[in-house]
Design brief:
By secondary structure, the protein is mostly helical. It is built from four helices and no strands. It has one domain. The protein starts with 11 loop residues before the first helix and ends with a helix. About 0% of the residues are buried.
Length: about 80
């Protein structure tokens, strides 16, 4: 079984779809990393490890790591 995607690269919308398809692995990996980070944070909260770091600092660390993952994607060229 084969699947063939075809894009008219002279069409702006098709170019956007082409870029999104080409970035799909990177997007999936970023989502997986964010999921893993969320699980780790949840484990920290459940096991009381959050006491080592303030809740605000924990949130800032979490945001920073999410932004790090998202910065690996060229989101401006994938969403317009």
């Amino acid at each position: 079984m084969k699947g063939i995607l075809e894009f008219d690269l002279s069409d702006r919308d098709d170019r956007m779809e082409f870029a999104r398809c080409n970035a799909s692995l990177e997007m999936a990996m970023a989502l997986w990393q964010i999921e893993q980070l969320t699980r780790k944070l949840d484990d920290m909260l459940v096991h009381g490890e959050e006491q080592k770091v303030s809740p605000r600092a924990t949130i800032e660390i979490f945001k920073s790591k999410i932004f790090d993952e998202l910065s690996k994607l060229d989101l401006d060229n994938l969403i317009e």
